[in-house]
Amino acid sequence: MAATCLVVMGVSGSGKSTVAELLARRLGWVFAEGDEFHSAANVAKMRAGEALTDADREPWLAALRDWIGEQADAGRSTVVTCSALRHHYRDVLREASARVRFVHLDGSRDLIAERLGHRKGHFMPPALLDSQLAALEPLVEGEDGIRVDVAHTPEEIVAQVVAYAV
Ligand SMILES: Nc1ncnc2c1ncn2[C@@H]1O[C@H](COP(=O)(O)OP(=O)(O)OP(=O)(O)O)[C@@H](O)[C@H]1O
Ligand SMILES: O=C(O)[C@H](O)[C@@H](O)[C@H](O)[C@H](O)CO
């Protein structure tokens, strides 16, 4: 399998969009923002401060998986953002016809809450952070991926991921 997909995962506010855009540019790989694959109903729900359920997330994960596969079938490696909080969500993404690898942006609740508190113009309310942390199942042995600490700068994180992935 020639193409790789790096899924930048983690709770809301962990820095997925910030890191993944920089990473895609550095690698010259196609970038997709996972949030753009959500239905309008999912976005409305999150905006209203309600956590998504497994059923809400199912079509979203399938759409992202299909996009990763289409890009890979065309020979393109990709970088995508997706919270991918639970192991079985990651199993859906792993069904794509690419080598799917995960980069877990991990950090303390306090640090992430502080960053979310300062963020402007995003639909995701900081109040959903605790439900995200409750859902989170970190990578386990046997999953293809790494955990990186979000206390570092985005540039440092990208350098760490490039060293790992290339
Ligand atoms: N390593 C970092 N150091 C300092 N600030 C950061 C870092 N990464 C992200 N930020 C800032 O933290 C906030 C959250 O980052 P970002 O929006 O990229 O997170 P996200 O995981 O994509 O969130 P969501 O899942 O809600 O879309 C932003 O204001 C961003 O500028
Ligand atoms: O699984 C989820 O609950 C959602 O995907 C959220 O994580 C959002 O997509 C995103 O993180 C907010 O921007």
From TrEMBL:
The keyword Lyase does not apply. Keywords: ATP-binding, Kinase, Nucleotide-binding, Transferase. It catalyses: D-gluconate + ATP = 6-phospho-D-gluconate + ADP + H(+). Pathway: Carbohydrate acid metabolism. InterPro entries: P-loop_NTPase (IPR027417), Therm_gnt_kin (IPR006001). Its EC number is 2.7.1.12. It comes from the Bacteria. The keyword Cytoplasm does not apply. It is an enzyme of class 2 (transferase). SUPFAM superfamilies: P-loop containing nucleoside triphosphate hydrolases (SSF52540). Belongs to the gluconokinase GntK/GntV family. This is Gluconokinase. It comes from Glycomyces endophyticus.
